[in-house]
Amino acid sequence: MKVPVEWLRTLVDLPAEVTTEQLADRLTMYDLKLEEIIGGGISGPLTVGRVLAISPEEQKNGKTINWCRVDVGAQNVASVPDAPGDDVASRGIVCGAHNFAVGDLVVVSLPGTFLPELGFEIGSRKTYGHVSDGMICSTKELGLPDDESSAAGILVLAPGSAEPGDSATELLGLADQTLDLEVNPDRAYALSLRGVARDTALAFDLPFSDPVDAVTLPVGEGGYPVRVEDPEGCPVFTTVVVTGIDPTRTAPDWMVRRITQAGMRSISLTVDVSNYVMLELGQPNHCYDRAKVSGDIVVRRATAGETVTTLDDVKRTLTPEDLVIVDDSGIIGLAGVMGGASTEIGPETTDVVVEAAFWDPVTIFRGERRHKLPSEAAKRYERGVDPALTLAGAARVAQLLAELGGGTVEPGAAHVGTVPASVPVTFPVDLPARVSGVDITPAFAQDVYERNGCIVATDGATFTVTPPTWRFDLNDPNDFVEEALRSAGYDTVPSVLPTPTGGRGLSRNQVLRRRVGHVLAGAGLTEVMTLPFVGAADLDRLGLPADDERRRQVILANPLSAEEPGLTPTLLVGLLRAASLNVSRGHDVVEISEIARVFLAAAEPVGAPIYGVDRRPTDAEIAALDAALPHQPQHVGLVLVGERERSGWDGAGRAVAWSDALAVVRRVTQVLHVEVEVRAAQVAPFHPGRCAEIVLADGTVVGHAGELHPAVAAEHGLPGRVGAAEIDLDVLLAASPEVGPKPAFSSFPVAKEDLAFLVADDVAAEALRSTLAGASELIESVRLFDVYTGGQVPEGQRSLAFSLRLRAPDRTLTDADIKSARDAAVQAASAQHSATLR
Amino acid sequence: MSAPNSDYDPVEVTPLHPDEVARVAREALEAVAAATTLADLKQARLDHAGDRSPLALANREIGALPPQARKEAGQRIGQARGEVNRAIAARTEELEAVESAAQLAAEAVDVTLPVDREVVGARHPITTIQELVADIFVAMGWEVAEGPEVEAEWLNFDAMNLGPDHPARTMQDTFWVEPAESAQVLRTHTSPVQARSMLTRTPPIYVVCPGRVYRTDEADATHMPVFHQVEGLAIDEGLSMAHLKGTLDHFAQAVYGDGMTTRFRPSYFPFTEPSAEVDLLCYVCHNDPASVGSCRTCGGEGWIEWGGCGVVNPRVLVACGVDPERYSGFAFGMGLDRTVTSRYDIADLRDLWDGDVRFTEPFGVGL
């Protein structure tokens, strides 16, 4: 809400010494937050001038400048010999713009003028071979709002509107300041000078006289006949008629200046007066050309498919939810949102029907959104306009039209409906103090309420407060706490640290997730955050088959990009994008990880219920909410590009191999104490022969690790072999035992045996290893230390060499013990995998 | 047979003569002292303390002496051999130290050679700031609550006193899940986690909810469609705005150090009443008149907009099953992304999301 300070000061008797900044600060602490102070700041001799002569001079750079002689009245110097035209008292000024002519009135910033838009003081300076004694100003340089003239460049004043030498600062109201206040949606009343003035008076503890009280209300029946068929949508509707307006009249300068400063454009006397009253009292209103209205004005709901052409010349199709104003000819307005073109005020209009109504805020809110028609009127109606204001509002418009347009207000008004009664609220007198923590006495609170226009009844223990008609925000006891607190001052709230009874610290999952994060960083991975928006093309690039469950994306109704309409079902999309970016920026080694949610739509999605808010939903109802949501587990993903170990002076580097991502996953599962098994798998976007699925003891596949499919790597511009992994962290954390493995070890001596086997290629190393490990109780551990093919190893086989550590918990092993364990291992390898000892 | 001759004069045996013993002992000591390497010393030991050394040979002669002479000669030889052995031991130690020092000196390396072959990891600052905030509140006895990001419309809006026709719904540009009947959104704030906490816990409740939230803002230097918030919720008997202020002051001090404070300005949120904007004293200039004018962090204001807060609207308590007659509470929320960007002079919010490893690397594993 833009509030011209000059206008505000006419409505509240603010002491002259209160500066605009002080006013703004106080209002900010009174819940009318300052966005900015507009205007002001111009100082020095900003003067009206008349162009006496122009000499266009072409410059070497091809530009033509105008060397001008300008009459600035009392600011003239006696002689400017080299300026064009007769050497009379004047000033010589160089100007680069061309949209003015000899005889035009312009605004001249003479040396010593400070223009905030430029940020410096104008001086007399030599330019283009002349001494330019000031500057002819453009609309923009003066900080005036953009309009048709600002595009032209230099501001040319209307002929006869001023005399050379007049103060342009005064003429254009450039010293005026305007507060741009951020009005919260609950403070609808502050979308008017009336409301801001009332709060200003309260904030500065000054008396306030309501401008509404100054309006002479029409007496008796009259106006234009009205019938309201939907009193729920339109509780109050008022018309007043003005006749005999002189259509050639325009709004006076003071009014134009005020509505311009308030951010609206001057259009015509009728429109300006209508807007002026909306700004002044907060009552939106509409003026119809009476000559174009036929029959009674009727308020009703639209029928489906009805159309109206609104004032913006758009034909709109309506629904039965729309509230319309009709006459015998059809729809003449969309209630509270915009008027119709058929009854618009025109250049010949002399008789006007002024309409002021109170519309149901929800109906207006929905209509405005349905038709995407935000307007100043709708903005006020949807938040709540004082329902008791229609008569005064319409009367004020009529009175100004008559006064300024030379018309006559017809006696009486059509005033239909009843002002909805304000609902009283009862609450304990100590509630403001209890909730705010500030020592607000009941007496203080009562005074605040009464000065805000409330009617207060009290029995000493409770207040029963009836809010005034313009306050839509005073419905609950706590609303009255806020009202008292903003008067007491938010800065008076003391600082008291509460003492919770003691929490249980981080949850186990939270602790474990941190642990995983540290392990990933310790494994050399850099954590990144990626945006979760992806589309089908992204999944295509991963090579996901059509029937992959990750194709079941959660789709957004209003995505930012049509190419990325859904939420990601895999972290690898974002990680590969990030890897590409890094590679394209010249990084050779990119080893990145992310922990974030992924999103998988249900096969048969159901809608989430919407409940009332007057009670807690039942446990079953809460479960129904959760059941409707898509599966959105936290995943951990990683991508490895380049060297896993860098080359250096002490050795060659090691390029990323298929096993590196798996090794990181192994580290993660180990620190979580989760026993996992690894099996070969074929899953996009992995290399079909180099992908491991990670399997929990109960058979659940918790994720995959291995090498990215070379085609996918190439598609993303990633060089070499790329390691990748993605794990469902939620499932993995759930599998982490509360108590990890217990330390158990024997202090008897170890015996070491190395065994190399020849086995068929398709025998998994892990299968053979676990067979060996289980072959004898005496085998403490088995570790594969060599894989060999070629040479003497037959085609289709490979040599796998293991080192076995043998130990007994209770004795030193004998040679016979060692031999029997070794034989058992060889025997088991042979029996289960046809492995032969080399 | 005659009785043993027990009193005849000792036979003179040259190697056992005191002068001779002293001479070979001296020679031995000189040889030991002259050894400059462990190899030399080994030779000296063989020559002067070995089985064939003069002292060892002399020792064998003791048996030839009559019994009454053996003791004295044994002592003499024993002392001499002891002296030589001690000298050898001492010299060994000296020479070993010298040789070890020489070897270590020879093994010296250029310690400025790079030792960067292992890739070094780092954690994202948004992760670590969430942990930092969580730790501050956990230390106060609060707990950390979490919830889904695709959220039921009812929990994101209705339960927060943002009914379908509430004008405030237009203030938040929401990503809606298709189809409209799904009644689901990408949560616009972490407040639904507050609702979930109230629905599933019994007061007293003290929880903070850090997490990802979404608004339909096109990505640019100062806006992202995804960002991070931390919200706090306290529900207990007798809580007031004063407890809110105390909590936020403490939070500010824990993050930014002693002397920090906050300031309330009136505001409006549907889920709190009364509501306030909370400003943080500028942590760079501390609103010091001498420096505030030129402070870039707060733009000369002395205060930095930090977040929104207020007393939980009793309507929210009712919808979430908390008895408003018995309990009251407060809530607050602030963005974490800008906390990071403003503290580390990051001009472009997109840097947080691009995944360029150079963004994360400087943070190491903590802020």
Description:
The complex is a heterodimer of chains A (838) and B (367). Chain A has 838 residues and is of the alpha+beta class. Chain A has six domains: 2-39 and 177-209, 2-Layer Sandwich (Phenylalanyl-tRNA Synthetase, Chain B, domain 1); 46-171, OB fold (Dihydrolipoamide Acetyltransferase, E2P); 214-417, 3-Layer(bba) Sandwich (Phenylalanyl-tRNA Synthetase, Chain B, domain 3), CATH 3.50.40; 432-468 and 476-492, no CATH class; 508-735, BirA Bifunctional Protein, domain 2, CATH 3.30.930.10; 751-837, Ferrodoxin-fold anticodon-binding domain (Alpha-Beta Plaits, 2-Layer Sandwich). Chain A contains 22 helices and 43 strands. In chain A, strands 29-32-33-39-38-37-36 form a seven-stranded mixed sheet, sandwiched between helices. In chain A, strands 3, 4, 5, 6, 11 and 12 form a six-stranded antiparallel sheet that branches. Chain A has a five-stranded mixed sheet with strand order 14-17-20-21-22. The radius of gyration of chain A is 41 Å and the shape is elongated. In chain B, helix 1 packs antiparallel against helix 2. Chain B contains twelve helices and nine strands. By secondary structure, chain B is an alpha+beta fold. In chain B, a hairpin with a 2-residue loop joins strand 6 (262-269) and strand 7 (272-281). Chain B is 39% helix and 18% strand. Chains A and B meet through helix 8, helix 11, helix 13, helix 14 and strand 29 of A and helix 5, strand 1, strand 2, helix 6 and strand 5 of B.
Give the helix/strand layout.
The complex is a heterodimer of chains A (838) and B (367).
Chain A lengths: L1 E3 H7 L8 H9 L3 E8 L6 E13 L5 E8 L19 E5 L9 E5 L4 E2 L4 E2 L3 E3 L2 E3 L2 E2 L11 H5 L3 E2 L10 H4 L5 E7 L9 H11 L22 E3 L7 E8 L9 H9 L7 H13 L4 E4 L7 E5 L5 E3 L5 E3 L5 E5 L2 E5 L3 E2 L12 E7 L2 H10 L5 H8 L6 H16 L2 E2 L4 E4 L7 E4 L2 H6 L5 H10 L3 E4 L3 E5 L10 H12 L19 H15 L3 E2 L5 E2 L1 H6 L24 E2 L3 H14 L5 E8 L21 H10 L5 E8 L1 E3 L8 E2 L2 H14 L4 E5 L5 E11 L4 E8 L1 H6 L7 E6 H6 L16 E10 L4 H9 L5 E10 L8 E10 L8 H19 L2 E2 L1
Parallel strand pairs in A: 14-17, 29-32
Antiparallel strand pairs in A: 1-13, 2-13, 3-4, 3-6, 4-5, 6-11, 6-12, 7-8, 9-10, 15-23, 15-24, 15-25, 16-23, 17-20, 18-19, 20-21, 21-22, 26-28, 27-28, 30-31, 32-33, 33-39, 34-35, 36-37, 37-38, 38-39, 40-42, 40-43, 41-42
Helix pairs in contact in A: 1-5, 6-7, 7-10, 8-9, 12-13, 14-18, 21-22
Chain B lengths: L17 H17 L3 H12 L4 H8 L5 H40 L18 H15 L3 E2 L5 E3 H4 L27 E3 L4 H10 L4 E10 L11 E11 L4 H16 L5 E8 L2 E10 L21 E10 L1 H6 L8 E8 L1 H7 L7 H4 L2 H4 L7
Parallel strand pairs in B: 1-4
Antiparallel strand pairs in B: 2-3, 4-5, 5-9, 6-7, 7-8, 8-9
Helix pairs in contact in B: 1-2, 1-4, 2-4, 3-4
